[in-house]
Amino acid sequence: MKDEKKFQILAHAVLILLSVCAILPMALMIISSFTDNDLLIAEGYKFLPSKWSVYAYEYIFSTGNSVVRAYGVSVLLTLVGTLLSLSITTMLAYAISKPDIPGKGIITFFIVFSMLFNGGLVPTYMIYTNVFSIKNTFAALLIPGLLMNAFNIMLMKSYFVSSIPAEILDAAYIDGAGETVTFLRIVIPLSKPILATIALFAGIAYWNDWMNGYIYITKRTDLYSVQNLLNRMMQNIQFLSQSSSNVQNATAGLAAIPLASVRMAMAAVGILPILVMYPFVQKYFVKGITLGGVKG
Q: Is the pTM above the cut of 0.70?
């Protein structure tokens, strides 16, 4: 018992240390975003700055590009994308978890194959723009490469196989339930942990994605997600900084931009929704990753 208690104390100490190491950079990032830019450049990053400022956030939200609209696009994209991704992933994973489904081996092979190989950026771009014509549409943010993820499918399939007792499914079949009823009324309620886990994965992927908007959204800036908008703002700042010696009055404009603190503010704006959402799904996330085998 003493050895077990010592181990628990040591384990808790290590986990607390790791947690602190994960939290401190985010805390420093948020504090730096509220630090006066001149002080940040002169004295570096501090947890207790001597002068505070919200000018970085004023710059972000007062710029000609609408951060509020970009937030709306990101929220809509994340909600719709997560729902579609979760629905498709759940149905496909449940199908290949059945031992007697025809073509199960071929379907599983193609899923695993897509984890290792893909067509590349240029062929993908040509297919989506020339065949499906999604360029400069909301679908360009939603569809390419994010509706399904092979890793999520295999993770959910393993959960169905190891954590949904076959006896419960057999009992449902005996009572006259078909596959649809069994899936909706038995499997889904028993799969809340893995559903929350996959929803978190998909939601983070959609929220953080900027590549699709960078490639496929070339004209309609009203479709920029918050990540695309912040990336474009950062590019504009860098361009102004590099060209300040050649552009008339650019130096004066550059001096008004909080270059150091605005980077921290942009990172804080981008990560805030994830920080708010994660505590609500944490318990399901842990269960979805760790649960396995039929208990009891």
A: yes
